[in-house]
C-alpha cells in the first residue's frame, strides 16, 4: 500500500492558532519534511509534542533534489507530513513539487487546514472579498516589477501580495504608479502577533508611510480596478498607461499601440494624448526658465 502525504497548516503568528490535529500528525508521521527544522523544533516544543518520525529539511534550495526521496517514501507506505515556516504549504512555500510527485504516483494527498496569511489579510482589509487573486511576491527588479503590475492593472478582483519589509516602500510606489495613487489598499503587518497592524488608505498615501521604514512580515491587499469603459478614461490615464509600458522597456510607438489595442481605442487618440502631455511639460519647463531669468 502507498502512504499518505499530509500538508499541515502552521500558525502565522500566535501558536494558539495551531489546528488541533497538528500535534497528533506531528507525533504520528513517519517522516516530517520541514522548511526550517529549527522552527519546527520551536513549534513542537510550543505544542508539547515529541515527533515520532524522521525529520528532514525541505526548503527552496533542496526542494527539487529531495522530492524524489520523499516520493519514494510515500510510494513505500510512509506517512509524510509537510510543514512550512508559517501558513499552508505550497502557497508561496515549498510543497507543489511534492504534491505533484505524489499525485503522479497515485499517493493520497490530504491536509490539516490551518492559518493563512492570504485569507487573514483579505478578511481584515476592508476591501471586497467576493472575488480575489493571489499574486505572491513581486520581482525585485523595478522593470520586472512594473511589468508584472501592468499585467494586472485592469484586474477587477481584489489582489493579494506578499512583500519583504525592506522592499515595501518601492513596491507601494510602483503600485501607485501603475494602479493610481487613489486605488485603495491595506498593508497588513505581523498578523496575529503582538504588534499586529493594518494600515488602510490610498496607494500613494501608503507609499509615503512605508518610506519611513516598516518592519515585520507583510501582506498587501489591493482593491481591484474599477469598472470603467475606455470612453470614460481621460487623456491623463492614457498617458499614464503608456508611461508604465515605456518604463517596463517598451518603445513609445509600441506602448501607444498596445494601450490602444488593450482599450479598443484608435491609436491616434492615444498618440494625441501623449503628444499633448509632452507639449504641456515643455511649456511648463519653458515658463519656469523664463520666470527664473
From TrEMBL:
Its EC number is 2.1.1.198. Its main location: cytoplasm. GO terms for biological process: methylation. This is Ribosomal RNA small subunit methyltransferase I. InterPro entries: 4pyrrol_Mease, 4pyrrol_Methylase_sf, 4pyrrole_Mease_sub1, 4pyrrole_Mease_sub2, rRNA_ssu_MeTfrase_I. Catalyzes the 2'-O-methylation of the ribose of cytidine 1402 (C1402) in 16S rRNA. Residues 4-207 form the Tetrapyrrole methylase domain. It comes from Streptomyces catenulae. One of its GO terms (molecular function) is methyltransferase activity. Pfam families: TP_methylase. HAMAP family: 16SrRNA_methyltr_I (MF_01877). It catalyses: cytidine(1402) in 16S rRNA + S-adenosyl-L-methionine = 2'-O-methylcytidine(1402) in 16S rRNA + S-adenosyl-L-homocysteine + H(+). It is found in: Cytoplasm. Belongs to the methyltransferase superfamily. RsmI family. Keywords: Cytoplasm, Methyltransferase, rRNA processing, S-adenosyl-L-methionine, Transferase.
